[in-house]
Amino acid sequence: MLFTGKGYKLPALLGVLFVATLGCFGLIMYLQFASGTKMYQFLYWDIFLAWVPIFITLVIMAFCRLGNVKVRRVLMLLSGVIWLFFLPNALYLLTELLHAFRLYKVNPDSRFWLDTTFWLILFTSFSAAVLGLFLTSLCVWIIHRILQKAYNAWLAWIIIFVLLWLASVGVYIGRFARWNSWDVLLKPLVILTDVWKWVSLAGERQHLLAFSWLVFAITVIFYLMMYISLSEEKACRPRTRM
Q1: I need a labelling partner for 131 at 20 to 30 A (CA). Which of 41, 57, 61, 99 fits?
Q2: Are 143 and 160 in contact (CB under 8 A)?
Q3: Where is pLDDT greater, at 31 or 110?
Q4: Domain range holding 211?
Q5: Residue 21 lies in a domain
Q6: Is 66 helix (H, G, I), strand (E, B) or coil?
Q7: Tens of pLDDT along 132-174?
Q8: Which of 48, 8, 13, 14 lies closest to 28 in space, CA to CA?
């Protein structure tokens, strides 16, 4: 089987992330109650969309067990394309840190860091950002394992880095152009027009690259840490005496 053994406890990881998601929801509800507003109402939907790549990843894992090779490859290819379009939704949560300063009007002449509301907003947005990094890393790790079974290790790593870069660009499209994953099917020509503008205009291109590389670097560092922690640590296993 693909994920067996003591080193791969996927259900436990999903359970922890589910509890973390409930924790984020709890912070949002408390923040709304404390402020008497609908602050961060949008975050419920954004977090749900962040889980969509995980759901698609589990579907891909199920397709891996199909006996018919041709059917398996076609279904995995189609679901893989859909997965790639939805992957930026998980990484997009990283940009929710913006709202810690957009929803709280910081007065530089005051000691705003003494205000509990500021920290509550900051911790809420930070929790969503970390959750997005974990969700992104987990589903990418599963895809990475599948690629390692199908190809050699170097090619699998190259594909993973390309996927993370494309996801970073997708975050840029979502944050600044406000396009959704399903707009790829509904408004493909409009998206291509925007992408062409970003590529052809020097200022737009510089902004796209600077933002995407920053997101990419953060994601890669986080993913590498998670990849190492999820790998079997043979050196840490106790030696058995003969």
Answers
A1: 61
A2: yes
A3: 31
A4: 10-230
A5: yes
A6: coil
A7: 999 999 999 999 999 988 888 899 999 999 999 999 988 988 8
A8: 48
- 65-113 tens-digit pLDDT: 887 788 888 898 899 989 998 999 999 999 988 887 777 777 777 787 7
At which residue do the structure tokens 């006996």 appear? 67
Residue 89 lies in a domain: yes
Separation of alpha carbons 91 and 135, rounded Å: 8
**210: Cβ contacts below 8 Å, ≥ 6 apart:** none
Question: What's the structural domain count of the chain?
Answer: 1
- Long-range contacts made by residues 229-237, C-beta under 8 angstroms, separation at least 24? 230/7, 230/8, 230/141, 231/7, 232/5, 232/6, 232/7, 233/7
Handedness of CA 74, 1, 150, 85 (dihedral sign): positive
Confirm whether 240 is domain-assigned. Answer: no
- What 8-state DSSP symbol labels residue 174? I
Sequence-distant contacts of 182-188: CB under 8 A, at least 24 apart: 184/85
Q: Which amino acid is at 146?
A: I
238 in a structural domain? no
Confidence grade of residue 241 (pLDDT, cut at 50, 70, 90): very low
